[in-house]
Design goal:
Helices cover 32% and strands 21% of the residues. It is α/β, with parallel strands linked by helices. It has a domain of 322 residues: TIM Barrel (Alpha-Beta Barrel), CATH 3.20.20. Helix 10 runs parallel beside helix 11 and helix 11 runs parallel beside helix 13. The longest helix is centred in the middle third of the chain and has 18 residues. The protein binds N-(aminocarbonyl)-beta-alanine and zinc ion (2 copies).
Amino acid sequence: MNWDTVIAGGTVVSAEGKQRADVAIRGERIVAVAKGLARQASPATRIVDVAGRYVLPGAIDMHVHLDLAVCDTVTSDNFDSGTRAAARGGVTTIIDFATPYGDDTLHDAFDNWIRKADGVSHIDYGFHMCLTRGERHLRQVPEMVRLGIPTFKQFMIYAREGWQSDDGQIFGALEMMRQVGGTLLVHAESCAVLDLLVARQHHPAAMKRHGVLLHAMTRPSFIEAEAIQRAIKWAEVTGGRLYIVHMSTGEGADLVRHARRRGIDVWSETCPQYLVLDESVFRGKDGHLYATSPQVKTEADGLRLWQGLRRGEVAVVSTDTCSFTRAQKDRWGGDWTKLPNGMPGLETMVPLIYTRGVLAARLTLRQLVAACCTNPARLMGLYPRKGVIQPGSDADLAIIHPTHKIKVDWRKMETHCDWNPYQGWSLAGFAEHTFSRGRQLVENYRFIGQGCGGQYLPREPVAPRLQT
Ligand code: URP
Ligand code: ZN
Ligand code: ZN
């Protein structure tokens, strides 16, 4: 047969199970998945022998901030370094947050983000749109849906950045989501109480005594839980689809579980940092580097989030990649409220979930594929083009070795970040080979991509009642 490439001899993994099969690729698409395809291939077909390896759908990281201006600086990873890092980690699609600057319209933000990504990104990309100007932005939502953006984010915090939405604005946005078939992604942290706790500690004596521990001390779990509960109520009464981003608490997982049982259209994601780190990181020498919002919580929260992933209550793992170098973080000068919040994550998401989840018997491989590939594709309107290995889907593949471990070292990584939260950890699950629409981006763990061939992915609203 006249195929371009056959990925031969591996174990193909889906959200339903595993099978020994070859994968045939013609052009940008998968054209066949079956045993023995390599034997049927024409002599011109390239055969990539992946015996003993797992063949996964390329992962989709649906929570990424690349080239974002925030906190008087710009994230250290842009669409070049960020998507190189992604490919090394087996991620072949990202959805970044187009964020209006100042009084930008949503269209301004869309144009700005296309400019940042077009001809720069190595993998396919879509955008969520952040709603930061209440009614004015809400009126522009239908236009964004026509441009292929059916998912929107509102922040309950970040007044200083000018991003914050109040309850009325969240309620209104959920009503709008119901009308247009969109999904509202909410950063759920209770701003009034958080501000109060911060104000109580924001004086030289407390900062000298506690340092960056204040970041954790002023964000107890109830800051997230109360906010999730409130957002769920607005989703219940409006009927708009709600998606809780970067959920960091066990309490949050409980709230989402109960709401879903009551038939409320609410979904959630968590991130590796909430699964594998805990607040002891703030006691270390470089504790300030780990500041992110929400901040990492306790080991018990991590265990409950793993359980949520196992049970399907937490649908997605994403990274919330928002990276800053040491120099950028060091500007905090001992005041935790000045820290640029966020961490790198694209290169290590699949390895962390594979090593700490699958190899540690917390998740099955099937569940990893559901959380990192298939569920985000379904929820984000990309399925079955992405998130699954089947004829007709894009040839986006991540091939991983079941046991081969690599030591995390920022010096050898594609991210521009000069530190890593997992520095020195030995992780399996890095992509030995990555294919994006049939082009090989990673070979033998090295990025080899050329030509920045990532394309913008316009997305459709998903069906009103969604099953993952
Ligand atoms: O600290 C983080 N996560 N910064 C990125 C913005 C956000 O809230 O997602
Ligand atoms: Zn957020
Ligand atoms: Zn984020």
